[in-house]
Amino acid sequence: MAEASALLLIVTFVGCKLKSVQISNPSELAIALLVALAAVVPLPLYWQEKGRTDLRDAAMTIPWALLLAVVLPFSVDVAARLNLPLWDERFARLDQVLGISVPSITIWASHNWLGHLANRSYPLLIPLLPIAFFGPALTGKVEHAQGFLISNLTAFAVGVPAFAFFPAVGPWYGYHFAARPDQLLCQSQLLALRLPGAYAFQPAGIVCFPSFHVVWAILCARALWAFRPLRIPVAVLSGMIILSTMTTGWHYFSDVLAGIAIACLSIAVAKAIYHHSRRQSMGRPELRCWELRRPVIRARWLRS
User: pTM score, two decimals?
Assistant: First the structure.
């Protein structure tokens, strides 16, 4: 994790320099991060003193998550500054080839109770994210806490380059239907990033392809799967959030498919890394298995 974070810091710093992404008050940001880290670092130390390695290892994800939460948004702005051609028209045509029309879905949602419910679920991802992270991290669910952290890092490693090479504004831009004020704000932020000259960093939800709403909805469901009573409600909520990406007109169907693919890949990578690290920490099981079987083999040889 340390190597990945160091690489991320280097890439982000170089990218900001090359693409003239300026950070206003970087010292204040650094101080705020250090204060936050100082506040949470004692928690794993406390569990280490108590001998609770599960709670310690789960809590150790919190400092790393704070660091990534500060650094990762800069990579999105750097990706947008590559200024490659917009893909809105092509995404709209691809949706039509797949038999999906986002304008038709938004009209259906405006006249259907399920559509209204889906639309209201779209902003619920904001509180769901910290719940999905802090829930496992504070209760000793090591696999789910570490998995959520690693899968998010993997999703950004794949999703940000995809956004850089296939930038898009949103369905209202590709289908040419009326946009809401918040969608027009998102459009103006993305187009401002694509202008030449220096750009003062400001966090904004400008990624259209792939849909990180879809990615995070799936990753949150995976993280909270550790709590059996929450499985059904979280699965329903995550499904509604995924549906809302199109009922609200924020994303193309192509964005949704890409988000699902990246989420599945990220979960698989996180699971493989977690089990690999566990095997390393426990030693080489194949040697222990050989040691257990060797006396039996010798006994059979003696009897023969």
Answer: 0.87
